[in-house]
Amino acid sequence: MTMTTSCCAECGVEGGASLKICKPCMQVKYCNAECQRNHWPTHKTACKHRAAELRDVELFKDPPPKEDCPICFLPMPEKLICCVLLPPATRSSVPIYDFAIAHEELTNEDTALYYSCCGKTICRGCIYSFYESGNNKCPFCNSDRARTTHEERVGEVTKRAEANDAASIFMLARYYYKDVAGIQHDRTRAMELFTKSAGLGFSKAHNRLGGIYHEGGDVKKAKFHVEAAAMAGNEGARFNVGIIEAESGNMERALKHWIIAASAGHYKAMFQLKIGFEIGLVSRESIDSTVEAYNSSCAEMRSEARDAASRIMAEAD
Residue 68 phi/psi, 5° resolution? Predict the structure, then answer.
């Protein structure tokens, strides 16, 4: 039977606009669910193949811009290390990871802090500037944070989470998962909240779920979540997708993901590409262009205030 967009792929009845398209592949249509079920044994191979092709188109297209700090309007990287003045990379070496090892305390520090009072995520540079001026209030909503207790902050997060704020739901999930802020560890509740936040499109929740599933050995679920976060512009998740692909033996795909992540300023991805270059998996042209993109991305995320905050944190450790 020749299938057209105006006929049901199973029974051939013409239905025009009333037909329902197969959402995974977007290639065939059906007049009802029964026809779709009956046609599935014939269609499933082509459907899965086309669905994978469509997902790859979405997965490898240019990611959306990074989230900006609501105060200084500079893009925010995943970790503070990308806001430090890095030694210049050359065409024959990429000393980025060596520098990160020497400043390990900055590789584990988030670039921004979440404020439960207003639900805003604010970069450490702006927070540093406010503290330097003697202002201990929230840089965004100006509420007094110095006298706020842990219990009050948990209450603020809970209230915002109940209003379906994705970032607040994610923070509450972290409290349950890590047994912090006075909340007793409850993995089941944490997973429910992570899943809810991810369902609202919060990329950090997708990435966290991916990490949890990966640690538990569920590669299929891990890959689904880190890919969703990567498509939303999370460079840390993009790096993690590359790790999963590399572990599965798909080095070509892994390198493509690491190039995207490194171009967005992810130092671990840049290091993986350095290794790939040294063993002949990455061309000189590719490593040169990615280093240039990496440095440009890091430069866009730097500011004097962020540099000052980074120096203080490095000196404190």
Answer: -95, 150
Domains of the chain as residue ranges with CATH = 16-58 (no CATH), 80-316 (1.25.40.10)
Cβ(299)–Cβ(89) below 8 Å: no
169-196 pLDDT, tens per residue? 999 999 899 866 677 889 999 999 999 9
Say if pTM beats, i.e. exceeds, 0.85.
no
Per-position DSSP letters for 39-94, written without gaps between them: HHHHHHHHHHHHHHHHHHHHHHSPPPPPPBPTTT--B--SBGGGGS-PPPP-SS--
Q: How many Å apart are CA 157 and CA 166, to the nearest integer?
A: 11
State pLDDT tens for residues 23-36: 999 999 999 999 99
Q: Which residues make Cβ contacts (< 8 Å) with residue 28, sequence separation at least 6?
A: 3, 9, 21, 22, 39, 43, 47
* Whether 115 contacts 121, CB under 8 Å: yes
